Amino acid sequence: MERNVETFLGCDGTYEEARIVLYGAPFDSTTSYRPGTRFASRTMRAESYGLETYSPYQELDLEDAAVFDGGDLELCFGDVAGALGDIKAYAKKIWADDKLPFLIGGEHLVSLPAIEAAAEKYPGLCLIHFDAHTDLRDDYLGARLSHATVIRRAWDILGDGRISQFGIRSGERAEFLWAREHTYLHTFDFEGLEARLAAWKGKPVYFTIDLDVLDPSVFPGTGTPEAGGVSFPALLEAALHVIESCDVVGCDLVELSPPYDASGASTAVALKLLREMLLALDKKQVFNNR
């Protein structure tokens, strides 16, 4: 593992020293509405230098964290299965070296191979999913691999009782009905999160955040914006609470689409959330390894 030439701000440690490994999956070939998420990780990396490494929220600094930026994977846009296989192989390498992978998408389908790799390493894996959309279709226009089916495919791996969804405010009626029998689906906000975290205390958790869980007034730069979303402070508080309360073994942030926010504000929002999550994860790993 070689250091990437251009890294996320403050994430320029070596692979050997790192506790957390960032990597980008610039893939959006199954996007159902507006593509562009393939540019997210590259844009975030470049724009991160407008952010400070220090967090006044947590009184922690990325300069003190052990984070390695592995850069972006080279993924074939015309081969969905091949791209997913490459993501899974990279995630497995990180876990094999006892480090925590943090994936930057890309469309939400890129989460699936990371979840699959996590489930292979951690029996009993649970999934916490923040999103505007259910992502529970069995297929989208005949395709079983799509950003609209990613949580249904995760259910194929994990089964009932191990997926909890928050912020959901869009999906087919059939998806909501299906969720009543198979996932813990919480509409509109993060109500019920505390109870779910308590129930899953001590269990390995993969944490996936589709940034369109945010209201479009806060985060317009996404391919499928949905009105009625949460605020940035609410998302930040919930995300940090998940990290502090659970045994989080892997994370991702997906569905930033920079072309749909020329102001760059959406990228800035994504970056601040990324900084805070990295700091919380690093602090947790330091504490756990004492």
Q: What does this entry look like structurally?
A:
This protein has about 290 residues and is an alpha/beta fold. It has one domain: Arginase, Chain A. About 35% of the residues lie in helices and about 20% in strands. The protein has eight helices and ten strands. It has helices at about 40-45, 80-95, 110-120, 150-160, 175-180, 195-200, 230-245, 265-290; strands at about 20-25, 55, 60, 65-70, 100-105, 125-130, 165-170, 185, 205-210, 245-255. The strands form two sheets. The chain has an eight-stranded parallel beta sheet, with helices on both faces. A two-stranded antiparallel sheet has the order 2-3. α4 links the parallel β6 (about 125-130) and β7. α1 packs across α8. The longest helix is centred in the C-terminal third of the chain and has 24 residues, at about 265-290. The protein is globular, with a radius of gyration of 17 Å.
Question: What topology emerges from the helices and strands here?
Answer:
Layout: E1 20-25, H1 40-47, E2 54-55, E3 60-61, E4 67-72, H2 80-96, E5 100-105, H3 111-121, E6 126-130, H4 150-158, E7 163-168, H5 173-182, E8 184-187, H6 193-199, E9 204-210, H7 232-245, E10 247-254, H8 265-288
Parallel strand pairs: 1-4, 1-5, 5-10, 6-7, 6-9, 7-8, 9-10
Antiparallel strand pairs: 2-3
